[in-house]
Amino acid sequence: MLQTAPLPDTIADLLGIGGTLGAVVGGLVGAALIGTLMLTMTAVAGPWAKRKITAAFTDRYAVNRVGPAGLLIIAADAVRLLSKELIVPEGVDRPAWDIAPLLLAWSALLGFAVIPMGNGIHLADPEIGLVYVFAVASIASLALVMAGYGSNNKYSMLGGLRAVAQNLAYEIPLVLIAASVVLFSGSLQMSEIVAAQAEPLASVAGVTVPSWYAFVNPFAFALFMIANLMEVGRNPFDIPEAPTEIVAGYQTEYSSVYFVLIYLGEFIHIFLGGAIIATLFLGGPAGPVLPGILWFIAKIWAVFLFTQWARSALPRLRIDQLIQVGWKGMLVLSLANLLLTAVIVGVIA
Amino acid sequence: MSLEEPRPTDVGETADGELDYDALEALLGETAIDREEHVNAPAFVVRPDEVQEALEALREQAGFDYLSCVTAQEYADRYESIYHLKKYDDPTQEVGVVVPTPTDEPVSQTGEPVYRTADWHEREAYDLVGVEYEGHPDLRRILLPETWQGHPLGRDYDPEKPQVVPFREHANPLEEDARVETGEADTMFINVGPHHPATHGVLHVKTVLDGEQIVDVEPDIGYLHRCEEQMCQQGTYRHQIMPYPDRWDYVSAGILNEWAYARAAEDMADIDVPDYAQVIRTMSAELCRIASHMLALGTFCLDVFGDFTATFQYAFRDREVVQNILEDLTGQRLMFNYLRLGGVAWGLPEPREEFFEKTRDFLDDLPEKMKEYHNLVTSNEIFQVRCVDTGELPPAVAKQYGATGPVARGSGVDIDLRRDDPYGYYDELDWDVVTEDGCDNYSRVLVRLREVEESAKIIEQCVDLLAEWPEEERTIQSNVPRTLKPDPDTEIYRGVEAAKGELGIYMRSDGTDKPARFKIRSPCFCNLHTLREMTQGEYIPDLIASLGSLDIVLGEVDR
Amino acid sequence: MIGMLKSMATTMKHALDGEKFTVQYPEETPEVSPRFRGVHKFSQERCIWCRQCEDVCPNDTIQIVTDDKRNGEEYNLHIGQCIYCRLCEEVCPVDAILLTQNFEFTGDTKDDLAYDMEELKNVPWYKDIDPLASREPDRGGWIGEGEGEVDYQ
Question: For A314, which of C7, C18, C19 is closest by C-beta distance?
């Protein structure tokens, strides 16, 4: 197991700065590095990969004119979006309306601070890492409400309200399922959870299957995947946006930079969801041959691909049906899962 | 009104299903002051203050439960409203009710209490012609803006006169936030459209919400009004009208629309159509129906799935194949202008074998594609949860609103003019009318999907017939004079089964080569009227889904 | 659940088979059928100035100006207004007006789309197909026999 010092310490050592200053500089540089990595992934995903993937599902060509394989569309889109006019509609609730896009992007980025990405790329490793991730990720709900309420638009309002209802319905199952993982690993610390999954589970025909929690408890994994789709608001749970119903929900009134921030925030949220799934269920950065960070990124993208796949084939639920699924289905199932896990862990231990 | 409405013993119907108009006249008694002969059916003239009485008698006792259309027109000496009545059980049994009103006081009793569908029809008549309907619950303009001056289809209307609308007349849509119509103060008014991702064109639905639930909706139409009726009145029968029907329902149902005009004009001027041309017409019309239903399915999925659904693209891919075949046949992909009075413009493209092969390939591939749609759409549990039992339209309500086409058939109303009032080559072919009893959004989707299969059956038989047609008998057009001048005051109302329902044309000639009145009975117009019934108490997503399941084309609603 | 999985399997199948149904225009030009109706081409030499096309046109797209001896002076056609119904071609007794398969035309202003006689004459064939010949092979079309060259005058 590549258990090394957290990234800030490594950077501080490299720069030869010690003490508090070293911690601060190391932290800042490390955060900037990881932030850049995530934003780069988002930039690839938003204007390019998403279009390519959707096009593949729908038998079309997609962006292929600008640059090799259309990759330069990323630059073109960035310029296009940033050069648009930032329209501030009449009667918006100013501070709230302005803060919401920032908060949305920021809350998702913060989550990556405690995710171990392999090869020592790990900003911090607090003992309550898992709780921290869920705590910061759910700040996004606040941003959605602010955007929905602050926009002075009825569609935004409906979107904001839907977001709240949806968040309430999925957050509890999400945390409960994560709790079942904690029961296995016996720790809330992210590095511990990853380390616990490194042990071999079984050996099939000479290949050692690691005890990733996706293998140990596939039921919890499936539940978490669904809850995660709800969290990131993708089909069949893209109800707060629902472009064909309520135009674009909470983001209806945003344009230009603010729109970019919201868009960015959504994608970082998908990636954060992927990172949490990778860490909790897929052994974090573990994998053969390739360096851990690459495995980690590959796992995140696999989850991203899954959201896009679901989007191509699954209809959107109605808000009341979603609430039903959340409270009557997911909550009960995740409680059952927690109970079952507790019993199993209790018996084995 | 109960669901199981026992069919009343119809007065005026003889044992062999024919209509005895003398018996009907006797039924109306004093109410009928005169009788007119129209080409499609006789019509009774009724005094303007006895409209409801006459309609009531015909509906309750003679079984005319279907008000197909209301046509209003202005003569030199009077206004006239014509109610075209039919029966859902047998649409060939028709009768007209003509209500003349004086020019200086064009007021006539409304038919709305008897037939709900008269609501919109009479509003349109008021809007465009200027007949006022006494007792109408909501007599406002429907196609033109509220501030419009004059009635464009009236005789003294001056189209050159500018429409000056003072600024104060513009209502500010943002002014009112809540509309208290239920007595509860916490409702929210919201404009769905005219610019909304899911209104299938420029439709404006004024919606009152209670939370997410719908208290009231009111479709506001007319944004795409292009004076189609007036344009047809300015065109000659022989050539100039035919290009326009393509543009009513412009989403690939062109030939079906052209056929509506062709059928009416041919019956009016007594023109024969060679059998060979009828088979070609039947085939191309069914190709259009498939294209149109594919589009309906695709856009409906867009509404229910969200904007990244693959089904939309797959539906377009399959529609593309149909359009290629139609392009080979007609020369155009949407605005076909293929039918001519007395036949079709072109025979099959040479080499014929290639065309047959292309069509047969399409038909052979179709079952697999339909299976794919069923996998993608109808068997998907979330889709079922979303669509079953939403947007319910009971059959009795559907009839009251004059719903036709897949909307009526999805409510279990067994009406299809191709079978009930045969034209073209349909009665020689083996196919079935599809109905579903679910009355919900899901049923309407199913009806369309199954109708695609039935259409494929029809096309297959047509292709076989065409392939074996003797070479010397391949006449594509009968002899039609270069200038058509039907006898003065010939009146006709004829409908065909277009992709969306009964598309009817009313025409009156005045002895010239252009119709004096050209009225289009649009199926989308009537079907859209049912939206309010469908969505009461449902959620916003259901409103969008119901709107999608109605499969309206605003070009045809507004004309 | 099974239905949902079937849906997802269907879209995945499409993603993996790599087939595309869209066309990379303009690198790949679409095949238009022989009957396709595009921009008009007009032959001054053939025209007998009978005005039938002008009369039949449903929305007054064609404007013909003749002198007092009925000799043609102008033949204007506003292709931005045209609805491509092909009635002018249909009524023309001498095939002087014809709809080519050419659908690729642009104009910066509305006026650019009002074509006069000369511009109508210079409309290029699409992929060198003579529409008349391909629509009605037995009539020979506008192209001179055996030349192989597209020149219809």
Answer: C7
pLDDT at residue B9 tops 70: no
Count the domains in chain A.
1
- Distance between CA A42 and CA C51 in Å, rounded? 64
Put simply, whether A57 touches C (Cβ < 8 Å) is yes
Put simply, the answer to whether A56 touches C24 (Cβ < 8 Å) is no
Q: Which of A61, A64, A312 lies nearest to residue C11, judging by beta carbons?
A: A312
- Interface residue of C5, C7, C11, C14 to substitute, partner A, most A CBs within 10 Å: C11
Confidence tier at A247 by pLDDT (50, 70, 90)? confident
Whether residue A181 contacts residue A118, with contact meaning beta carbons closer than 8 Å, is answered with no
Q: What pLDDT was estimated at residue A1?
A: 37
Interchain CB contact of C85 with B (< 8 Å):
yes
Q: Which of C10, C19, C24 sits opposite A313 (nearest CB)?
A: C10
Residue A78 to residues A73, B138, B236, B237, B406, Cα–Cα distance (Å):
8, 52, 55, 56, 46
- The answer to whether residue A1 is domain-embedded is no
Tens of pLDDT, residue by residue over C20-35, are: 888 888 888 877 888 8
Closest approach of A193 to chain C, Cα-based (Å): 31
Question: Which CATH class for the C33-137 domain?
Answer: alpha beta
- Answer whether residue A120 is part of any domain: yes
pLDDT class for B282, splitting at 50, 70, 90?
very high
Choose the weakest-confidence range: A259-263, B12-16, B220-224, B417-421: B12-16
Band (B223; pLDDT cuts 50, 70, 90): confident
Distance from CA of C124 to the nearest CA of B (A): 19
For chain B, domains (ranges, CATH) are 21-134 (3.30.460.80), 228-558 (1.10.645.10)
pTM: 0.86
Tell me how far apart the alpha carbons of residues A46 and A40 are, in angstroms, rounded to a whole number. 10
**What is the C-alpha to C-alpha distance for residues B504 and B40, in angstroms, rounded to an integer?**
12
Angle at B218 between CA B213 and CA B220, to 5 degrees: 135
Q: Which residues contact B364 (CB under 8 A, 6 or more apart)?
A: none
